[in-house]
Automatic annotation (TrEMBL):
SMART domains from the UniProt entry: RRM
Alphabetical keyword list: RNA-binding
GO cellular component, one term: nucleoplasm
Protein name in the entry: RNA-binding motif protein, X-linked 2
Source organism per UniProt: Parnassius apollo (Apollo butterfly)
Domain (RRM): residue spans on this chain: 34-112
C-alpha cells in the first residue's frame, strides 16, 4: 500500500474513534509493544534529531535508525522503543503525517519488533537487556503474583492426586496380598 494512503487511513481511524462511542481503541491490539515504526524520513536526519522530535511524547529507551551497510547513510526509516507503551499511542496519533524538512513521515505501531543483534560485548547491560527481553510493558506485580499462586495451586492439586493414587494403589496391593495369603 502507498505510504501516503497508509497515513490517511490511520488518520481516518483516529478520527472515527473520536466521533464514535467505542469503548476500545484500534491501538489496543498493540498494547504489548512499546516500539513504533517511522518511515519516509529525510535521509540526513540523525538519531539525535529523531530523538528530539519523538521524545516530546515519552522517554525513548532504544532507537534503531536503519542505515545502508556499505555507505552508512540513513535509509529513511527507523524504529523507536518508548519506556512506556502509552507514549506510542501519543506519537502515532500526533506525529503520523507531519512534515519534517519537506517530507511527510509515517508513524505506526510495531507489534513484534526486536532490536537487531549486535555485538553484545560492546554494549552496556541495560541496552543488552532491552535487546534480549524487549521493552514492552511488564505485567503488574499483582498479576505476576496471581499467576504464581495459580501455578502453585495446580502443583499442589497434582501432588494431592498423586498421593491419593499411591495410597489407593498401596491399599489395593495389601488387599491382594491378604487374599493371596488367606487362600493358602
Amino acid at each position: 500500500m502507498n505510504p501516503m494512503t497508509n497515513v490517511k487511513n490511520v488518520l481516518k481511524l483516529s478520527e472515527r474513534e473520536l466521533t464514535g462511542n467505542s469503548k476500545t481503541s484500534w491501538h489496543d491490539q498493540y498494547k504489548d509493544s512499546a516500539w513504533i515504526f517511522i518511515g519516509g524520513m529525510p535521509y540526513d536526519l540523525t538519531e539525535g534529531d529523531i530523538i528530539c522530535v519523538f521524545s516530546q511524547y515519552g522517554e525513548i529507551v532504544n532507537i534503531n535508525l536503519v542505515r545502508d551497510k556499505a555507505t552508512g547513510k540513513s535509509r529513511g526509516f527507523a524504529f523507536i522503543c518508548y519506556e512506556d507503551q502509552r507514549s506510542t499511542i501519543l506519537a502515532v496519533d500526533n506525529l503520523n503525517g507531519i512534515k519534517i524538512l519537506g517530507r511527510t513521515i509515517r508513524v505506526d505501531h510495531c507489534e513484534q519488533y526486536r532490536a537487531p543483534n549486535a555485538d553484545m560485548s560492546k554494549i552496556d547491560e541495560l541496552t543488552a537487556a532491552v535487546r534480549t527481553e524487549g521493552c514492552a510493558p511488564v505485567a503488574p506485580k499483582e498479576e505476576i503474583l496471581k499467576v504464581k499462586q495459580e501455578k502453585e495451586h495446580k502443583e499442589n492439586k497434582r501432588k494431592h492426586k498423586e498421593k491419593k493414587r499411591k495410597k489407593k494403589k498401596k491399599k489395593k496391593s495389601k488387599r491382594t496380598e491378604s487374599d493371596y495369603s488367606s487362600s493358602e
